[in-house]
Amino acid sequence: MSSLQALIFDVDGTLADTERDGHRIAFNQAFKQAGLDWDWSVDLYGELLQVTGGKERMAFYLEKFNTDFPTDDTTPQLIKELHQSKTRHYTELLASGAIPLRPGVERLINEARAQNMRIAIATTTTPENVTALLEHTLGAGSCDWFEVIAAGDIVPAKKPAPDIYDWALEKLALPAENCLAFEDSENGIKSSLGAALKTIITINDYTRDHDFSGAALVLDNMGEPDQPFTTLAGDNYGASYLNLDMLKKLHAA
Ligand code: XBP
Ligand code: MG
Fold it and tell me: For the chain, which residues score pLDDT lower than 50?
């Protein structure tokens, strides 16, 4: 039987609730600064989240929701510039400490490190955003705790394609059967399952109604000893918070 050797984490929605009060706000700031009247409400952003990747999301918005906006062969450049501005606003927001990690995340990462469990990241977000989130929550130098950070445009096909997980596995030099993935969304689990990874889901407000068929476990969050998780689907092996002991049991099952 293959042993559990690495945990691979998604970032947005999994490590932290970054979408509604982070990325969305930063997009709107970039639009305003560029003199555009685009304004992404909480509800509209929920619909836009079906497309991963900020540049791809803006293109989808123009194609499906703001069809009156004139587009031509300069539009990709406009999107690129807006995205650079959005990344600046987003990383500033993270630097202000606006977005904490979700319950149980820091504890589980610390436990993994203490037990020499390898850890990695697989996300569609821009690398600068990952660095900013980790450094402003886990502390300076914490990026180095992650053996592989697979992020952004490093693969052309973003989630739900499995490519970003395949890339992370290749860099870890591990087969999928030695790893667990942590996700929060339908596009995320399609990607991780596509890479043949057993996957644990922690839902959030944008993803609670998503289809998580194929997940090993669906939870409301990772839980803490004094703040148990709620199990929505799957076997939690009698645990009330994610820890390596139960992850090993779940992985072996
Ligand atoms: C996250 C994303 C990202 C962020 C925005 O999805 O889709 O696009 O919303 O980041 P996942 P960028 O959690 O499935 O990886 O603007 O840097 O793309
Ligand atoms: Mg996510």
Answer: none
